[in-house]
Design goal:
Elements: E1 8-10, H1 11-21, H2 24-27, H3 29-41, E2 47-48, E3 50-55, E4 62-64, H4 65-68, E5 72-78, E6 81-89, E7 101-107, E8 110-117, E9 128-129, E10 131-139, E11 142-144, H5 145-155, H6 178-188, H7 191-196, H8 199-215, H9 226-236
Parallel strand pairs: 7-9
Antiparallel strand pairs: 1-11, 2-11, 3-4, 3-10, 5-6, 6-10, 7-8
Helix pairs in contact: 3-5, 6-9, 8-9
């Protein structure tokens, strides 16, 4: 029996597909980034890739992506390159008791130190490093899409959300789906500001927001003409009473 090959894709492509699983991730990219980080940190998704440590202990040395996933703290994309922020943990040398530590945080070259506890014991004449926030750069790290998608659906979708993608990558969303995104957009505006804006102004701001997400590869939403969006804004206004 021939084994079925795994569906490997780049992290960037996986991030771009996430709004196809849940529409709202196109509108709230910060939530999508956090969901991706949480999913990878749980360790249930196969990943592969080798990177270079930029900051932290062992700078300029190579590191395997799977070695740092449990301590993942942040992901930043620049093309196919991925900057991964994580925590390095070091055990104190045996000659120095654990009562004496400096916690040293190194992130993008900025060093911040704080004393956890100090002792005047002669056995601990100087502090030792406990944890270090490090950054490593990977070129096109990959993950198994099926596992990543399933983990997102199981653990990262809100209780009242329904997935668009339970088996395969979804087709680009149809035009009618913009109404849900528009509702969320209007709800995010300050009520006083929303009351001051005309329907056309709200429609234009919504268009600008969606187009910005499309350029970043974070949305595939297709919009109708602005006058249709403005008409929908007019219908939705009663849901958002003006601020006193």
């Amino acid at each position: 029996m021939t084994a079925k090959p795994l569906n490997w894709i780049s992290w960037r492509e996986a991030r771009q597909r996430m709004p196809k699983i849940w529409d709202r991730w196109a509108y709230f990219p910060d939530r999508a980034d956090r969901a991706m980080m949480n999913t990878l940190r749980r360790g249930h998704v196969l990943c592969r890739g080798e990177g270079i440590i930029l900051f932290g202990n062992h700078g300029d040395k190579t590191v395997e992506i799977n070695e740092i996933l449990p301590e993942l703290r942040g992901i930043s994309f620049a093309g196919e390159s991925v900057a991964v922020r994580y925590v390095q943990r070091a055990s104190p040398p045996p000659l120095h008791p654990p009562q004496c530590y400096y916690t040293v945080e190194a992130d993008l070259g900025q060093i911040v130190s704080s004393i956890e506890s100090m002792t005047t014991s002669p056995a601990a004449p100087f502090p030792v490093c406990d944890t270090v926030k490090a950054t490593a750069r990977f070129v096109a790290p990959e993950l198994v899409w099926d596992e990543f998608r399933d983990e997102l659906i199981r653990f990262e979708l809100p209780a009242d959300a329904s997935s668009n993608d339970t088996a395969a990558p979804a087709e680009p969303r149809r035009r009618g789906n913009y109404k849900g995104e528009l509702t969320a957009f209007m709800g995010s505006l300050n009520p006083k500001l929303l009351a001051q804006l005309s329907d056309d102004d709200v429609a234009q701001r919504f268009e600008d927001r969606v187009h910005a997400l499309i350029k970043k590869g974070l949305s595939v939403l297709k919009l109708p003409q602005r006058r249709h969006i403005a008409n929908q804004v007019s219908k939705l206004r009663p849901k958002y009473p003006a601020a006193p």
